[in-house]
Structures are given as C-alpha cells and as structure tokens.
Design goal:
single chain, mainly alpha, oxygen carrier activity, transport
C-alpha cells in the first residue's frame, strides 16, 4: 500500500479487502489453538517472498 497516500487509506477498497483477509486469518489462528504453523508458514513466506515485506516490519 506504499503507493496509496495516507489520506486515502481509510476509504481504499484494496486496504479494506486486505483488512478482511487479515481478520479471516486471525480467526483461523484463534481456532487453531496453538497448532498454527500450517497457517503461519505460507503466510510468512508470501509476505517475505511475494510482497517483499521486510522482517523488521513484524517486530
């Protein structure tokens, strides 16, 4: 979302869709009750390799 001006983030459809995805995954993680590696590993790989999100953004 780096190309979206901060003032436009709140009304942006792509940001809203991403938020819905995040909440869906959070629900899956909570339901996993600690057995979440199969959920987090592909998510982490996608963020690191496809989206090129630096690790320091998650600290």
């Amino acid at each position: 979302f780096v190309d979206i001006p901060p003032s436009d983030l709140a009304g942006n459809e792509a940001v809203a869709a991403h938020g819905a995805t995040v909440l869906e995954k959070l629900g899956e993680l909570l339901k996993a009750k600690g057995n979440h590696a199969t959920i987090l590993k592909p998510l982490a790989n996608r963020h690191a390799n496809t989206h090129k999100i630096p690790l320091n953004n998650f600290k």
